[in-house]
Amino acid sequence: MDLLAQSVPILLKGMAITIFLGVTSFVLGFGLGGLIALARISRFALLKALAIIYVSVFRGTPLLIQIMLVYFGLPQLGVQMSPVPSAILTFTLYSAAYLSENFRGGILAVEKGQWEAAGSMGMTYSRTLRRVVFPQALRIATPAIGNRFIALMKDTSLASVVTVVELTRVAESVGSSTFRYVEAFVVAGAVYWLINSVLSVGQEVLERRMGRAYA
Amino acid sequence: MTDDVAIHAQGLHKSFGDLEVLKSVDLTVRTGEVVVIMGPSGAGKTTLLRCLNLLEEPDAGSITVRGRTVSCSGPRQSRSRRRLIRDIRVRTAMVFQQFNLFPHMTALQNVIEGPIHVRRLPRSYAIEVGERLLARVGLTDKRDEHPARLSGGQKQRVAIARALAMEPEVILFDEPTSALDPELRAEVLQAIKNLAAHGMTMVIVTHEIAFAREVANRVVFMDKGYILEEQSPSVFFSNPANTRIRSFLRLMSDSGPHPELEEAS
Predict the structure, then answer these.
(1) Most CB within 10 Å of its CB: which of A25, A203, B40, B258?
(2) Number of folded domains in chain B?
């Protein structure tokens, strides 16, 4: 156990990197996903087509390939990126594709009468989105968005293949230097589980708060 | 166009696919007038009402509200035309069969949304007006409740306050009591009668005959996409000229209003 005890600081550091990767990519992906959802429901055919292609590509290819393509492929095109930013870029692009579909689902689930009530008082399209549609769509989409956040948190372990020293890579190196693979990966798995338990409690609190008006 | 005309609709046509719902409809509503639109299901009543504030774009014809005309032939997507349509919508408030309150806002927030975010009134002033309007429909104590906590009749009265808050030229009512249980209809009808007594210009699609007789200055009877008759309520209800109207009235009075026959909005 001594050997593992010595590994606690490095494990904590790995955990911090994992959380940093997950949270940053989620926040950026949330914003980008919102823009893609807007493009997807827009009446401009070109924007709509671009959004459809984007979602299709990033949802239809393995995340691992995207990660390696960005990390190993971009330098070939003359773009140098260090491991952490390149991982964040990939996770953002990837989760934006899924989140945009969650947003779109939420927006489409808002009753047509809501658009009409806002329109009939002379509200503009963008104000109707902001004041009337988004608040309701966000509530509808919260469970799906929460799932996406949790999935993303686990997906960050793939950053280990491009040398990001996050939780999974730390566990791997602790395992190989101590030959205590079982303990190392069990601890790492437990930490992921802990992080995601916090996230799901947060999701529940959020759902309850947003649902209060509807009870 | 004289000054006392609130809405003038001319030559409205509207089709949904192969179905021609409005076939050349003209309607003029004068300021202070209460016009009730009646007719069988599928007559085009709701579509006409929705065309009046351009929630539905007619295929042909024009709508004039207080001297501002939107023509429905020619180019549609110009920025100035969209602004004109918004301008007309601000002046023609709509009360829906299904209320369409904003569920994430309280009663008061629903009422002040338009004044603050469309009419750009100062928030404190909007709240003052909003509270006065909620009092006017008897819902002062429901000010901070969300729609989920209100009965159907209360929701519709909030929707009426929300419409009034826009200070519109005219309020359009699309079967305002059709989604309500019979015992909740009276409170909504009473709220509308109070508006009539204050000289509010209104166009009301309804199947409530007693209410129409009491509140209407003019009854417009529609059938199959046409306006068949425009009459004072006394003549319309006691001595209708048209046999189609006579059979409609007989059907309505035999069994009361037919919510199940009414068009879905």
Answers:
(1) A25
(2) 1
**Cα–Cα distance, A142 to A148 (Å, whole number):** 10
Q: Cα–Cα distances in Å, from B51 out to A53, B54, B165?
A: 37, 5, 21
Judged by CB atoms closer than 8 Å, whether chains meet at A122 and B114 is answered as yes
Per-residue pLDDT at B66 exceeds 90: no
Whether residue B76 has pLDDT greater than 80: no
- Given an 8 Å threshold on Cβ–Cβ distance, is A117 in contact with B101? yes
Positive or negative, the CA dihedral B38, B39, B41, B46 is negative
pLDDT at residue B172 in the model: 97
Q: Is residue B160 part of a domain?
A: no
Q: How much is the ipTM here?
A: 0.89
Long-range pairs, A83-89, Cβ under 8 A, ≥24: A83/A159, A83/A162, A83/A163, A83/A164, A84/A17, A84/A20, A84/A21, A84/A159, A84/A164, A86/A162, A87/A21, A87/A25, A87/A156, A87/A159, A87/A162, A87/A164, A88/A21, A88/A24, A88/A25, A88/A28
pLDDT single digits (tens) A131-167? 999 999 999 999 999 999 999 999 999 999 999 999 9
Residue B58: give the domain boundaries. Answer: 5-94+170-261
In chain A, what are the domains? 2-214 (1.10.3720.10)
- Within a domain: B235: yes
What is the distance, to the nearest Å, from the Cα of residue B260 to the centroid of all Cα atoms in its chain? Answer: 20
Give the model confidence (pLDDT) of A41-65 as tens digits. 998 999 999 999 999 999 999 999 9
In A, residues 5-64, which contact B (CB 8 Å cutoff)? Answer: none
Residue A74: CB atoms within 10 Å: 14
In CATH, what number is assigned to the domain containing residue B54? 3.40.50.300
Q: How many CB atoms lie within 10 A of CB A202?
A: 12
Name the closest residue on chain A to residue B162, using Cα atoms.
A121
- Give domain status of residue B161, yes or no: no
Q: Which residues pair with B226 in a beta bridge?
A: B223
- Check if the beta carbon of residue A85 is closer than 8 Å to that of residue A21: no
Q: Answer whether residue B142 is part of any domain.
A: no
Instruction: Report the distance separating Cα B130 and Cα B117, nearest Å.
Output: 14
Residue B75, φ and ψ in degrees, nearest 5: -65, 145
- The predicted model scores a pTM of 0.87
**Alpha carbon of A131: minimum distance to chain B alpha carbons (Å):** 9
- In chain A, the residue whose alpha carbon lies closest to the alpha carbon of B51 is A120
Cβ–Cβ contact A142 with B under 8 A: no
Dihedral of the alpha carbons of B134, B139, B143, B149, in degrees to the nearest 10: -130
